[in-house]
Design brief:
The protein is an all-alpha fold. Helix content is 58%, strand content 0%. The model has no long low-confidence stretch (mean pLDDT 81).
Length: 151
């Protein structure tokens, strides 16, 4: 279960930089300062400083969901597994207007995979698209109006 392996479809020595916002860097640094890291560099470990057992991980995750989500959100299956956070994060990037090519690069996937697996369950996409288009139209209007006035 805890075998060491390379990134999917990459050489064993390959690495992938994962840029994160400065706010999350501060949270991660504070966690490491408080709890340290395992001898092999892992951030999360059990009290014996070894791997967190998958069953313990699931139990903790289920408790956390009940603590922070509403009953409706828990019943909906929102963030049912820790891996769902990846889906939520990538979807949030897309929703926030981050270029899909950059989202795919950060996720280590192709744009095709990105849209097939992540973009299909975004809430509020229509409203976000309308806001982005409206904002661009206003900027374009100001630029073209300025060009007309100057020209």
């Amino acid at each position: 279960m805890h075998e060491v392996h390379s990134l999917k479809r990459h050489a064993a020595t390959a690495t992938r930089p994962v840029p994160i916002p400065p706010k999350f860097v501060r949270v991660l640094r504070a966690h490491i300062k408080r709890f340290g890291v395992a001898p092999d560099g892992r951030v999360f470990r059990n009290q014996a400083r070894t791997y967190v057992d998958a069953s313990a991980d699931g139990i903790t995750w289920a408790r956390a969901r009940k603590h922070v989500l509403t009953r409706t959100e828990v019943a909906s299956g929102l963030a049912k597994r820790p891996y769902d956070i990846r889906h939520a994060g990538i979807s949030f990037w897309l929703y926030s207007g981050v270029d899909p090519a950059e989202c795919a690069r950060r996720a280590g996937q192709s744009i095709e995979v990105l849209f097939r697996h992540y973009a299909t369950f975004l809430d509020g996409v229509r409203e976000q698209a309308n806001r982005l288009i409206e904002q661009s139209m206003q900027e374009w209007g100001r630029v073209s109006q300025g060009a007309t006035l100057e020209g």
